[in-house]
Structure prediction request, 182 residues.
Amino acid sequence: MDYWNYLDWVDEFSDPAYTDRQERFAEALGSGSLYTPELVVNRTELSYAQATSVGAVTGIIDDFLGVEVQTSVTVWLGSAAGASPIVVEYMTDGAPAGAELTVILVEGGLSNEVTSGENQGETLGHENVARAFTTVVAGLESGQVELVPPDDLVVENARLIAFVQDPITLEYFGATGTPLAE
Prediction:
């Protein structure tokens, strides 16, 4: 998200598109304001106390994992892992009418030095940082999308995540993930 970039420090991983997506979540969850929640599991937001309690997190995730999957999602590379753009092929089955598919390129093992704000002087480690994403609103059964990776992407630390969700409520119907390089 880029909404903290006015504090004399620009997050190198920020992007206005990520802020737009978070605004959609704030509206769907009815929070009324933009902020970064500790943890959200299929539209269930956890407070800091809940998110740091292994029992609470495990219970919510177990409940979510116990829900019958409505939609199958499959993704695979249609290009070399280090290509630009990265071509991602996809197939879904059982996606409800009006649903959308989002494909995200994420990377782990990242860090940055914070030069101002509440975390000034800290080095923050990051996992599953969104590096590129796209959303498909029609033709979810099968197709391909292109993701333009950043120049500094470490392919071995990258994954593709794809999910089908309701564009209004943001309820998830199915998801998958796969390493970018195998």
User: Anything to note?
Assistant: Helices lie at 16-29, 48-51, 54-65. The domain at 70-179 is CATH 2.60.40.10 (Immunoglobulin-like). Residues 16-29 form the longest helix (14 residues). The mean pLDDT is 83.
